[in-house]
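Question: Now follow the chain.
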Amino acid sequence: MSRGGKIALGIAAAVILAGAGLWMARGALATAAMERIYDRAMNADPYAGLPDGLHVGLCGSGSPMPDPGRAGPCTVVLAGRQLFVIDSGAGSVKNLALMNLPPGRVDAVFLTHLHSDHIDGLGELMLQRWAGGGRDTPVPIWGPSGVETVVAGFTDAYRIDSGFRIAHHGPKVVPPAGFGGVARPFDPPVEGPDLVLIDTPDLKVSAFPVRHEPVEPAVGYRFVYKGRSVVVSGDTAASPRVEAAAKGADVLVHEGLAPNLVAMQTNAAKAHGRANLAAITHDILSYHTPPEEAAAIAQRAGARYLLFTHIIPPLPMRALEGPFLGRSREIFSGEVRVGHDGDFLSLPAGGTQITRTNRLAIFQ
């Protein structure tokens, strides 16, 4: 064997031995990684490293349609040190924890409307906020009229479980007075200015009506913190109220439904005699917004960043994001992104910068 062959053989053997060593040590390496994850999760300051400002993330970017990569609808807003959750779809509470935005630190919940996919994680959020945070007051839950019925229902459904937890952990760990939620119902004015829900020197939160008929009322929200602004559309057909609320906004978080892709679902349902599903996929076109129309709204409003959520239909391959968006990137001159669970935008106070990370990336 030539000298070069011997060297190559030696290198190959070294690589194999190194690989074998890593394979043998994989358990120890995984354990060390898990220890770091727990250390991060238990940090007394989960917001360490974030600049003072307004931050918005997706704890759930999906819809009622099954999607293994997306939890149900949920948007999280961090304004300074105050943590707010908008809607609470299935699986979103786990995502909050994995994003190191502990449910126990949630200061208030805002519901855009009372469709099941926007509230089916609410009971778990209420429970985790109470037990995980040792809270001695229930979480405030803002929402359109009817929210009081929803909150009362989840509170009753979890009441037996709360008794088990108090008996097991004791009232110092889970104070009985903190269990459940307190409904804060409101009726957004169809005409007139947006309804201001929170108004402090640094933070203003307002609600406005959107078009989701026959679901009424349905609302979107605008958050303004130290000069930075985020608008969350909620579920809606193309709405002038969303456009008005998004005037000059840094970020517009807007739902999106691609009619061209949903048509494939409808055609398949018809072809296989699934008349009920064909009717549903046809009907949903009337109360959601095609991405190109959302892009036009963002452009006219002068928003700077358009983040799509409540993605319909599911997009099992990233290659489908282009067909989902259509001409959206041509229509809107700012940044456009098809949202994914864990996406997190940071808007430092006093500036214009928008940076994106993904707080679930460590698990992907």
Summary: The chain has two domains: 1-39, 52-363. Residues 59 and 329 are 24 Å apart (CA to CA). The mean pLDDT is 92.
